[in-house]
Amino acid sequence: MIYICLAKQCHFLFIGDASIQTCPDCGKKSIRAATAAERMEFFRRQTELMHTERRSG
């Protein structure tokens, strides 16, 4: 499942399972399941990152 951190300065999107309770980036407990739009953004970023890594490799 994809989650988002709701901390004011974080907003980290990440993959986790049901046991996840804190943001792996900032450590705050203010996380929730990502909305459809946030999941789309997550996959867009992942795809962009893969293309960037291939070009620089």
Q: State the distance separating the first and last CA atoms.
A: 29 Å
The strand count comes to 3
The shape is elongated
Run of helices and strands: EEEH
As a percent range, the share of strand residues is 15-25%
Main sheet: strands, sense, barrel = 3 strands, antiparallel
**Average pLDDT reading:** 93
Helical/strand content category: alpha+beta
Q: What low-confidence regions span 5 or more consecutive residues with pLDDT below 50? A: none
| Integer tally of domains | 1
Q: From the alpha-carbon coordinates, what is the Rg to the nearest angstrom?
A: 13 Å
Count the helices. How many? 1
Spatial order of the strands forming the largest sheet: 2-1-3
The amount of helix comes to 25-40%
Explain this structure.
This protein is 37% helix and 18% strand. The chain is an alpha+beta fold. The protein has one domain.
Write the layout of secondary structure elements.
Elements: E1 2-5, E2 13-15, E3 31-33, H1 36-56
Antiparallel strand pairs: 1-2, 1-3
Would you summarize the structure shown here?
The chain is an alpha+beta fold. 37% of the residues lie in helices and 18% in strands. It has one domain (2-56).
